[in-house]
Structure to design on (860 residues):
């Protein structure tokens, strides 16, 4: 049992930190952390809770199909299948799904292009890209209301043991070898998204001033 | 008395959380939670308090006309009639009124249209709209200085047991079956408003860059 | 002595709250609260402190000319004369000066006009303007480096017992009958400034989209 | 040893405060504080930690070449050489490097110009510039992936005992005679950057409205 308790503690800490940033607005978001590999078991947030609050019923243990392990009155998050997909297709140990204003706006703004690309940003190093001209691509997938379809669409982009996928107007899902790495990637993505939005506006603002001067 | 105390505790928790987000600027905002149905009695925030502070005089019990139940030196919020309207016209158990910069700007920006419409946003699910093409309409009403007129105007839009109405340059009023649902709706609305404002600016910014390139 | 202690406590609470909002960036800002009328004595923040920290040396007592009352190694804030001016020209009991990004940007944007005007905003009620068409004018004065000149320029606008004056690229100074009212006015101003900036950008953004559609 | 402990405490306090502002996104950022002059020894943040957490292994002592003093399993931050450069070229006692959205956007927006210039801003006084027409220049350098090259490029701009340098898309590095001054400068810069971005957008927004009226 001690591995489970350690993982509960680890995920609770992450939940508390993300809650402090208000990244669970309207009860959105769900978090998962792997407990064992074969058979696959992971902890996932219970459905319909206020994730700003800390209770003994925040997480439950599920199997590789997202079904509860053992008797429980808790229901796993409706989007548990997305976490299943990640653990099946990679060696990730933790996966996080959250909505922020910036990640949703970016997902809509670049949704038709199907991806957003960053280059020349120091924060890319959170993905272990260290070259000066390293490029980071974050795919943006369609937000299918049918969760199994959404999960399998996400699965097509789980090609490495850490990564990030935007779901159009439905937040971001990130994963990494453990809670530390998943959170690092989540933060780096949020930073890059906020940067991109602020840069677009600042550039347009400067352009407008210059244009006005030139007229 | 124990129902009252439970409700006091529930509303105090919500107040504390909204205060932490600074959603009571300039002593604005007021909160209510139903205690019993017949005759209708609900708790409402006392007038003229700093809602960032936690005291024993934060709330008082009022009846269906918004008058204090029992002797008290506290005055109910000047806008208590709006809460009365909600409890009379629906089965809501909690109603919240707060000012945020985003909700006020949205109320002005779309005020002439009388509503703002969201579609294709995951956060719409906070209103229990689950279809992929679900549409959410939030009405925007005129901000009558005369509170009974404002209350009855609001009342015309209280058609379901949960909902949200923007008052032009006067914040938002939301309601739900209990504190949990009312807060969920409040958060979802705030998220959608911030999203909308950020999207408008980002789109205009991209357009400006493209326009400049095409010239 | 007990009045002094009560006032120290009151001002310390305000300082703590404003610090939590990060309204003292770069050690900017200074706060004052009146202790007695004749002769005038008030508490003011000591110079060169990090106002995010709470110490026994945060405030000192000064007289109507801004000189320390009694022996102390503390120096009053360099801008103490502005507070003197307020207490001499009104019945205010508390005055607050803080820098925020929004108040500085507004002071620059409308600096040439010498004022910013708000109308139709609910938050105007923080200034006890209750009519539906109430108008709120906040003057914007030139930022003289010479503090006595700045103080006397400010003094010309201290016409009521509560109010607010923007100093161009130098924050806002507000006052009210006590700490509660001064803080209420400070918050209402900040809300209105953030609202104004967000509205300008949102309107321009919508205009750009519409313009693009019409071309 | 007591000087080391005092410095550890001082730097830990700064770390905690910057963490509360979320200025270490994606494990970015690193902090240093001088312990002694000859031979030079300073404390620096350990590599690969979550700087939001407070542990006994947050800092380690390094020498003038950035190598650990004494046996330790901790690795100094990969960018320790930048701090070495500052202590060698000035009498600074503390140096801080953090990423914020605003400092990164400013570094990109004005990167080609190689600097950003502020004038007429009260917050410039954090740099001890007191004249009414004081001008503050913050250089922006290229973000070399090769740390020794980056460090020596930064070194060319360490001309005073306090200062600030932006690294393009790689945050800001500031220094001052002690932790208090370094943090004051860091905050003033962040304020000025946020101000500049907000002003650019507000001016463009007003211009767009006026332009539309004139057409």
């Amino acid at each position: 049992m001690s591995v489970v308790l350690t993982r509960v503690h680890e995920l609770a800490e992450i939940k508390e930190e993300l809650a402090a940033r208000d990244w669970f607005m309207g009860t959105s978001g769900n978090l998962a952390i792997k407990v064992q590999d074969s058979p696959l078991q992971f902890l996932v947030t219970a459905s319909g809770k206020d994730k700003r609050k800390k209770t003994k019923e925040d997480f439950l243990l599920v199997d590789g199909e997202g079904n509860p392990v053992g008797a429980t009155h808790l229901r796993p998050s409706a989007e548990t299948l997305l976490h299943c997909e990640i653990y099946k297709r990679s060696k990730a140990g933790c996966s996080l799904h959250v909505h922020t204003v910036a990640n949703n706006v970016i997902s809509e703004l670049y949704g038709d292009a199907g991806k957003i690309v960053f280059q020349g940003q120091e924060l890319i190093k959170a993905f272990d890209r260290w070259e000066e001209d390293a490029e980071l691509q974050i795919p943006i997938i369609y937000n299918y209301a049918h969760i199994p379809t959404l999960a399998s669409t996400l699965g097509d982009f789980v090609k490495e043991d850490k990564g990030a996928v935007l779901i159009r107007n439905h937040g971001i899902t990130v994963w990494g070898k453990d809670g530390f790495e998943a959170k690092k990637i989540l933060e780096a993505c949020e930073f890059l998204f906020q940067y991109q939005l602020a840069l677009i506006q600042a550039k347009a603002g400067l352009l407008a001033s210059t244009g006005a001067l030139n007229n």
